[in-house]
Amino acid sequence: MSRGCVALVERSVSSRAAACAREVSKVYGSGEARVVALDSVSVEFVRGQFTAIMGPSGSGKSTLMHCVAGLDTFSSGSVRIGEVELGSLNDKQLTRLRRDKIGFIFQAFNLLPTLTALENITLPLQLAGRKADQEWLETVIEMVGLSGRLGHLPSELSGGQQQRVAVARALASKPEIVFGDEPTGNLDSRSGAQVLGFLRDSVRELGRTVVMVTHDPVAASYADRVVFLADGRIVDEMREPTADAVLDRMKNLDALRTH
Q1: Pairing relation of β-strands 76-81 and 84-85?
Q2: pLDDT tens for each residue of 122-142
Q3: Cα–Cα–Cα angle for 222, 227, 228, nearest 5°?
Q4: Is 255 exposed, middle or buried (0-12, 13-18, 19+ CB in 10 A)?
Q5: Contact, 93 vs 69, CB < 8 A?
Q6: Between β-strands 17-28 and 76-81, what pairing exists: parallel, antiparallel or unpaired?
Q7: CB-CB contact of 101 with 171 (8 Å)
């Protein structure tokens, strides 16, 4: 996996990679307080795939996602979104890239309480001065089952419905890649399964690329691939995961940490 990512970068990045990290490290503090959150991580996220990132608490999974998504800086290495090297961008350019190329879904729904569901969905487009692709927008809204709730305020929606709004908002701008940080963490199992189904459908039916950090083996089983981190390094990956197989792998990682 590491060699493949290096080759992608050296060939000006294959069209296969929606995002690619090469030898990325993230270090906090110095001296005795020095903490290595990421240790020379190389990974690619292929276009049109759903990848879950898992690992024990403190393994670096959220840090990896934040660095690849341009939400956090990295200490060394290289990160690309498509063909754009993040390290070459200034703050303004990075903000524009996140706005135009990336969708975000977080554990907290982050909806504006005074705006309707539709206004929350289209807000990022309005802030960017862009008109919505109406056909695309209608497809996304129909996919997440919000057609009858567009005029409702967040306070008038259930938690699951609010997260559907957040999913639609992330997809509305046709991003190259969508990042989710524990997107079902605040939901009950039924609502969580619906949101995960929408994310999977956005990959299979809409051709999006999704990268999701999760601690939940059931959530990870919706992905095409699971990448496992431990102590700031990628230690394993799994294709076509099942919840039981992911749980067994996580137990093995936890056992290794205790020895």
Answers
A1: antiparallel
A2: 998 988 888 888 999 999 999
A3: 115
A4: exposed
A5: no
A6: antiparallel
A7: no
| 16: DSSP letter | T
DSSP notation for 179-226: EEESTTTTS-HHHHHHHHHHHHHHHHTT---EEEE-S-HHHHTTSSEE
Q: Are 101 and 82 in contact (CB under 8 A)?
A: yes
What token pair was written down for 70? 């341009």
| Structure tokens that stand for 59 in this block | 């393994």
Q: Is the pLDDT of residue 14 over 60?
A: no
Q: Give the tokens for residue 7.
A: 């080759």
DSSP structure class, residue 25? E
254/259 Cα distance (integer angstroms): 9
For residue 215, what are its two tokens?
A: 């601690």
CA contacts within 13 A on the Cβ side of 151:
1
Q: What is the pLDDT of residue 11?
A: 44
Instruction: Kindly report the pTM of this predicted structure.
Output: 0.88
Going by pLDDT thresholds of 50, 70 and 90, the confidence category of residue 225 is: very high
> What's the CA gap between 120 and 111, in Å, rounded?
6
Closest CA to 81 of 101, 61, 52, 105: 101
Q: Which domains does the chain have, with CATH numbers?
A: 49-73+91-257 (3.40.50.300)
Round to whole Å and give the CA distance between 214 and 73: 21
Nearest to 174 by CA among 140, 215, 151: 140
